[in-house]
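User: Predict the complex.
Assistant: Input components as received:
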Amino acid sequence: MVKLAPGGPFSRERAFPPEVLKKLEEKYDLDKPIYTQYWLYMKRVVFEFDLGPSTRYADRSVNELIATKVRYSMTLGFGAMVFALLLGITAGLTASLNHNKFLDYAPMGMAMVGVSVPDFVMAYILMIIFGLSLNWLPVAGVESWQGYVLPCITLGFVYAASISRLTRGGMLEILGQDFIRTAKAKGLPKHVILLRHSLRGGLLPLVSYLGPASAGILTGSIVVEEIFLIPGIGKLLIESATNRDYTLALGCVIVFALLILVFNMVVDLVYGFLDPRVKYE
Amino acid sequence: MLLELAFALSFHSNIAALEKAQTKPHEFVFGNENEPETLDPHKVTGVPDNNIVVQIFEGLMRHGQDWVSLMPGQAENIPQPKDGGKLYVFKLRKGLKWSDGSPLTAKDFEWSWLRAMRADTMGPYSYWLTDNIVGAAEYSKNPTPENAAKVGVKALDERSLEVRLNKPVPFFLHLTAESVMFPAKKENVEKFGDQWTRPENMVSNGPYTLKEWSVQQNIVLKKNPQYWNAAEVNIEQVVALPLNDKQTAVNMFRQGRLDWTGHNGAPNALVPALKKDPNFRVEPAFITYFYRFNTTREPLNDARVRQALALAIDRNALVEKVTRGGEIPAISLVPPKTGDYVSPKGVVSGNFPEDLKKAKTLLAAYMKEKGLKSLRTLRLQYDTKELHKRIAQAIQEMWSKNLGITAEPFNQEWKVYLAAQRQMDFDISRSGWMGDYPDPATFLELFTSSSGNNHTGYASPNYDKLFERSSGEVDHDKRLKILETTEKLLLEDLPILPMFYYTNFGFVRPEVLGFTPNLVDRAYVMYFNKSNK
């Protein structure tokens, strides 16, 4: 599919001299028919785990590029997820325990804003406040851990919003059930009811949401990485597509797909652990 | 757009609040537009590559920070051409060393230039050598030892390099100050192959050496103590960040984390507001913005139609109301400040009301001759960028209002646009060109019929002949006169529509000394210093 887009990796504003272009095409097998290219590529990927050389970064292989970049994206994604969970669950619990009071409306109002504001707008708002006005945090770059704070918040906020709504919904449903009433009747303290009896069930809808959310965070990271100058694979993917760096684009897509698969599988396993109704044979 | 405006406002109220520099006193941190594709001097392609390579390597000549003045680099003086401009003998400085301490000799230059010209080195600028040096074209295609012996580059002894050219090339010395003519160390290139440009493998000969290179994160250079002029190099460390997002560049500058935002280091829309900031500078660039006409299609194959289209544009209104980055209206192809060359006037005088009258007459004559009531709709392609879109819309309106001609702007993704331009699949195509060396030939060469970057279908035997003659002329003044005639012909035939000359803009910290802006927006860090305010 990448090849359907017109232009190639070596079409530039300044033309390459024809002999040089020929050598370049030979080097990257682009002079061969497309099925041969496909076969050569698949053979390398499947049998040698070699994603090939990058056509743009003349001296680097796709494996190397991805290997050095994936940790930045993972750190960003992980940080965003932790932030989203902490904020989302706290807000959701607060709201559900204070049903139809101010402490319900306030977090839910915030959540509404969180869902509606696109991440690039969020990014700039955070930059203005914490970077440029208060000068607490760097506006770009990840030389130190502080550099991750704003991007993680930006990326995590939308998901925090959804998570809080899901938590609230799930908890309200559970809190209205008979076994909670029993627990209350037994005179158990409030925190025991909350943590031991209701949380496990109340979080179920949330867990099933985490799979798609992880995928979303991964793909959302593309924009955030660009804005905050994080050298992750999201940035590589955008660049490779516009540069028609076929091998790098395919390599990034393969890695993204693998990561999404892994997350979904982890979520399924966790689901089984939390919900006794789901059994794996 | 709205967001950008909000940003502009927030800066506006904050202009005095530039944070203290967080970069170190002997460090220069700048925004490099993009991640370099390669740091192999013989393969460099774009501005980001050059921004690094000129710090770590040095050619026989080198440019001053103004990029126009030329001084001896690895050579000890500027050689006088002999044999009617076709022979140069360079004398290297005494005791030159590579960054690993090994001696650098004329042999290194001989080997490097042979490598740079070979097609299998795959460098886009190899044609600078193959077009000009005796025997280079043959060797490029067929790099055998016999062909190598015929190439006009010879190390006569440890310190003398003889170069024979096919024809006089008046700007040849400028070429020796650019990346493709820099030396590379044979032993390292042969030992490490493609990996020789990695920090751990690279040996270089410039004011700096490569310390770290982490893709899309940063490039760190440190001072090279082996450099012949190391005593004069003040900045100890250079850091380049790939800042694609211009807003990010501005933000980082505000936080004191950049010394220079780099080439066009601010979003275009902010330029009018930022101009008030004392640290923001706008300077003419060595880039012309123009439209290409497809001269093989009706009605653009008739010079009168092209002239009418070029005459019916109010360039002043365009730069004042649409582009707004301080651009200069262009009625020629070669930008101002190209050495002592002055572009001639062609059909377009720059006086808009007068030009418009002429346009109407020309168009009427054409329509009458062809028996036409109106022209067909012209398709105007541009590549995705807000600025190009706004320009195309303004031009569409001007043509429609002034000549009654309908143009239909349409947006193409960058590579699609390039492909269409190459296959001449357009009526009118947005274009721009940045000169490679400070000489009018770098622009005028484009529209010779054999140029690989012509893309207009324009093939004028007269133009080709004039251009050829100019490169054979040794006398500087006479040569400029011929180039003037050449450009005049182009500006009468108008296969292109010159619109404006770009500007370079960005922020520079007040502590940085020696940073004079140049036409190509390049920093030669070796000339800089920082005041400890």
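The longest helix of chain A spans residues 62-97.
Let me know if you want any component modeled separately.
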